[in-house]
Amino acid sequence: MIKVCIAGGTGWAGSELSKGVFNHPNMKVVGALSRKHKGENLNEVLNLGTANIPIFGDIETALKEIDFDLLVEYTKPDIAMKNVISTLRKGKNVVIGTSGLTDEDYSEIAKTADENKTSVLAVGNFAITVVLLQRFSEMAAKYIPNFEIIDYAHEDKIDAPSGTARELAYRLSKVQKPNQYVTEEELMGDIASRGANLNEVQVHSVRLPGHVISIETIFGLKDEKLSIRHDSGASAEPYVKGGLLAIEKVGTFKGLKRGLDSVMEF
């Protein structure tokens, strides 16, 4: 039985994962973090049952009050690092679903995990279709050295680019750096119109009403082009299956791994 504490366990995606863990035969939700619901019972908040599952306002209190095997980090970038580092220093494993962490953040996380002989599985997006998009995009990038990323989301998503887009840019840059045909010095007009440069990959973030969450990798060669795109609906259900898989697999290695496909078989 894997004992799980979920940071952000009452949020849009975290609440669905909480229900998924609660109903899993080999997992148990023993606590959650939520500033809004601090001091309440997760079972009562999510209508799960009668047992008492305490909700804490901060990671320090949770680490003192309950015993758990791993933390699922599903909050916001400004508090995610504190939650992750504090948990790793206590010798516990972490699954990261929070968007917006940088490569520098992950360098610190990897160092802390190694020092404490713990494990971190960082997943920019738990949806299986996103995992496939990442893998297919890496395959395409081997043969097409011209690509950019477009990141779509609703108007009130506060992180840009999304964690999914950041992870995709990181992964594609490891395959090869895309060609640059016009340098910043040669560009006429506003440089910002070309999007953010992440690991030498151009990333464009669209934030508009009517969009939920989508990610697209676009490739181009002379007289031909390729687009690989994922679109999600309004439900957080697609993220549950991948989240449960991450919880199962995070204890099978030591250190940091990025991407759900790093623990999947293809």
Q: What is the number of E strands?
A: 12
Proportion in β-strands: 15-25%
Instruction: Tell me about the largest β-sheet.
Output: 7 strands, parallel
Report the radius of gyration as a whole number of Å: 19 Å
Residue-averaged pLDDT: 94
* Bulk shape: elongated
Strand order of the largest sheet: 3-2-1-4-5-6-12
SSE pattern, N- to C-terminal = EHEHEHEHEHEHEHEEEEHE
Helix content: 25-40%
Quaternary structure: single chain
- Terminus-to-terminus distance: 27 Å
Brief write-up:
Helix content is 33%, strand content 25%.
Structure in words:
The chain has a 7-stranded parallel β-sheet with strand order 3-2-1-4-5-6-12, sandwiched between helices. Strands 8-9-7-10-11 form a 5-stranded mixed β-sheet. By secondary structure, it is α/β, with parallel strands linked by helices. It starts with a strand and ends in an 8-residue tail after the last strand. 33% of the residues lie in helices and 25% in strands. 40% of the residues are buried.
Which structural traits does this protein have?
266 residues; alpha/beta; 12 strands
Secondary structure blueprint with pairings:
Elements: E1 2-7, H1 12-22, E2 27-33, H2 42-46, E3 55-56, H3 59-65, E4 70-73, H4 77-89, E5 93-96, H5 103-115, E6 119-122, H6 128-141, E7 147-153, H7 163-175, E8 196-198, E9 201-207, E10 213-221, E11 224-232, H8 238-249, E12 255-258
Parallel strand pairs: 1-2, 1-4, 2-3, 4-5, 5-6, 6-12, 7-9
Antiparallel strand pairs: 7-10, 8-9, 10-11
Helix pairs in contact: 1-8, 4-5, 6-7
